[in-house]
Amino acid sequence: MAESDDEYVQDISDDEVEAHQVTRGAGAGSRATGQGSRGAGWEVTRTWENVVEGADGTISSTVEGLLEAGKRKRLLKDTTPLQRGIIRHLLLVLDLSTAMSEKDLRPTRYLLTLRYTKAFITEFFEQNPISQLGIIGMRDGLALTLSPLSGNPNDHISNIHKLHEQEPKGQPSLQNALDMARAALFHAPTHTTREVLILFGSLLSSDPGDIHATISALVSSHITVTIIGLAAQVAICLTLATRTNSSLPPSQTYNVALNEAHYRDLLMRATTPPTTPHSTAHDSGIKSSLLMMGFPSRIVDPSPTLCACHSRPTRGGYLCSRCSSKVCSLPTQCPACGLTLILSTHLARSYHHLFPLRNWREVSWARASRPGQRVCFGCQTLFPERPASVRLQSTSGGQSHDRMSLATSRSQPQPPKAAHTNSANKDGVSESGRYECETCERFFCIDCDVFAHEVVHNCPGCQSREGLLGSVTRNVRGETEVLVEGVAG
Amino acid sequence: MNAVDGSDHYNKTSDGKWHPQPPPSLLTIILDTNPHAWALLSSTLPLSVAIANLLVFINAHLAFNNSNKVAIIASHTQRAEFLYPIPSQGDLVQANGSTHNGAQHGLDGNEAPTADDANHYRPFRHIQTTLLSAISKLYKATTPESLTPTTSIAGALTLALTYINKQSIALSSTTSSKTNADPLVVPSDPNSVQPATLNPRILILSVSGDLAHQYIPIMNTIFACQRLTIPIDICKIAGDSVFLQQASDATHGTYIALTHPRGLLQYFMLGFLPDQSSRKYLVSPTAVGVDFRAACFCHRKVVDVGFVCSICLSIFCSPPEGAECLTCGTHLRLGEYGGKPAVLAKRKKKRKKGTDE
Ligand SMILES: [Zn+2]
Ligand SMILES: [Zn+2]
Ligand SMILES: [Zn+2]
Ligand SMILES: [Zn+2]
Ligand SMILES: [Zn+2]
Ligand SMILES: [Zn+2]
């Protein structure tokens, strides 16, 4: 995205360049602020040029291929298991300055931000159930605590809801907001992440002192700052993002939203726990530790009894696994003995980050024509038969495709007739419509491929195959079992 | 079609508005076919009786709405596989790649070699013959070596979810006129909105326990069901499983542990027949207490107090040897444990007063 920004340096319109003695963005503008045709032209992708007639003279096969490529592209990602900071402390900083009343994002930047923030809060706690979130606003040169650090999504949402009654006003101050965030994160335990996410609509920051001193303080407190810009790239934001995330490229930490959907994507990306590479885990200040947690069971009393957390009479509740005090909701800390009480389903939400399902590979016609698997193992849908026209090509080129990387198949010279198959292959689309799990060697359709990797994070084949049940999807687990056996023996 | 026999006035509700046909429900039944467990039950509820009851229940479900669908998956000792629908011989010789609708096999499955029984509604009979032959095939293929006391619920649940997903996609593509693409509500995950058109639910007929070694995949499926709002109903005939209780609780399903297994059909009809839309108006039986214990990663032991690695959230029943996480290999700080009271004091201090840098 950063590459496309450079052409529009000249597009910062005059109304955005307000005269102030402030830390000003000297970087390149990424987006025309006007709604005119000037801003729209460069977003056009010439999709029609990708459509090539198939062998039967229609374009339906190519269109289907393009659709499948779209599904597949989102899917093919690096599945190396990474250490992630799964217990997080995140402060969300909202820009509430006049720049937020711009209407370039519909209905306004302000209203859209509020709406997306609510969705973000819900999704954040879905993905990070034992994390803490706090919200800070920047208005009139001040930093305001909109919602203090807590683990309760409903509190945050109702606090955001109150902002609907107010108007964006004045100028933002990044320095004040960052200082406040640093103070709030000061008490975060060392085994958690310390993150600040800024949604920044302005092109300037009106600060009381030297913001670079604040940035240095953030770096020494191991706080990482990521920024989503709404207007254009601002130099101080880039500095801030780069200096606090020394190990990550700027494209992961500072982005400018192009449109509403892109804004939402950028925001939702922040709900995934950040990676903490092995080498820098120590430097980034995250110290791993062993936490003792209780997995309490729910009870329903025949008559109301007092809960330990609010001293209110309730019938339902959870009994602390250690001291049997009754609490109303989870996750929480036992008010009597201090044990962290959590539902095991809360922890399980993060397991797919730890044991990601490996990408499935494309199946060539040669491999697909082996007998045995004529339906998708996951959904019992019949696979397409090999069309007669493909027979020749697949016997010449298809054999070598088998078990080969995409890069090799791309560089291979192809007969011109196979142009559409070839172009589709680049996008990770299987010519036979089948995708194969390398562990269990079952064939699946594209829908099951997308679903297994994006939603359920299990391979239906590996989970249903004799002998494979114990050793779960990842080789990390294999190592675990070996380790355990070593310990036992 | 209903206009022909005048039955469409049944869709008119008290507020005088016309309502479209209720969305079809897809009932996915996971049948635990562990031979050990069924052998233990043979004096009270033999498998044949249970399957007969199940068929009556399936027929009742299909009779509710003529677009209702059913799928049956066997969760066998070491594998999971579809019992219904399975591709028929007719499908396999067909050479076209058009999308096949699983439940339609009943209508075009004329190749079934059984004698036509004029008194038997054809879709019902088709399910019966398919299910019975699939089960006998499954048992014939079972070797004594593969007998274990467990059952592959995780695989069966994953298959159920992929099947439901495919059916939802197939249904929403036929009724795609309603799904106008609003760029503002683009969800991060396109699958999360689709099942709104189909009313899917999963029913697990469970007879065996001991699922701790499938902890992570089961949890993955529970989480997926939660996101897709697919309730998991549990009909617990025998055995005990903490994880199935959690599954039904997390997905707002019904959990019934049978006290009188002989009355299986009655439990089915009264407890599990209503679909999601009717359950809003009913008081469905729920489990009073729910066991939320987890399984440790090191010994697959069910624990109520565990040690959790702060990096990868793996659960251990005791601090791992060498203070190294068995899953991610991270060296865990030694000072954090070494006796339960010490851990306790440390935790309290961290939360209340902040932490040492
Ligand atoms: Zn309480
Ligand atoms: Zn306690
Ligand atoms: Zn499939
Ligand atoms: Zn597999
Ligand atoms: Zn253990
Ligand atoms: Zn770990």
Characterization of this structure:
The complex is a heterodimer of chains A (489) and B (357). Chain A has 489 residues and is an alpha/beta fold. Chain A folds into four domains: 34 residues, no CATH class; 187 residues, Rossmann fold, CATH 3.40.50; 46 residues; 120 residues, Zinc/RING finger domain, C3HC4 (zinc finger) (Herpes Virus-1), CATH 3.30.40. Chain A is built from 20 helices and 17 strands. A six-stranded mixed sheet of chain A has the order 4-3-2-5-7-8, with helices on both faces. Chain A has a three-stranded mixed sheet with strand order 9-14-13, with no helix packed on it. In chain A, helix 3 packs parallel to helix 18, helix 4 packs antiparallel against helix 5 and helix 6 packs parallel to helix 7. The longest helix of chain A has 19 residues. The N terminus and C terminus of chain A are likely disordered. The N and C termini of chain B lie far apart (73 Å). Chain B folds into two domains: 275 residues, 3-Layer(aba) Sandwich (Rossmann fold); 43 residues, no CATH class. In chain B, the strands form three sheets. A six-stranded mixed sheet of chain B has the order 3-2-1-4-5-6, sandwiched between helices. A two-stranded antiparallel sheet of chain B has the order 7-8. A two-stranded antiparallel sheet of chain B has the order 9-10. Helix content of chain B is 36%, strand content 13%. In chain B, helix 7 runs parallel beside helix 8. Chain B is of the alpha/beta class and 357 residues long. Chains A and B meet through helix 10, strand 9, strand 10, helix 12 and helix 13 of A and strand 3, helix 7, helix 8, helix 9 and strand 9 of B. The complex binds zinc ion (6 copies). One zinc ion binds next to helix 18 of chain A.
Number of domains of chain A: 4
The first-to-last residue Cα distance of chain A is: 53 Å
CATH H level, superfamily name of the largest domain in chain A: von Willebrand factor, type A domain
Tell me how many strands of chain B there are.
10
CATH class of the largest domain in chain A: Alpha Beta
Mind describing the biggest β-sheet of chain B?
6 strands, mixed
**How are the strands of the largest sheet of chain B arranged?**
3-2-1-4-5-6
**Helix-strand topology string of chain B:** HEHHEEHHHHEHEHEHHEEEEH
The average pLDDT value of chain B, as a whole number, equals: 74
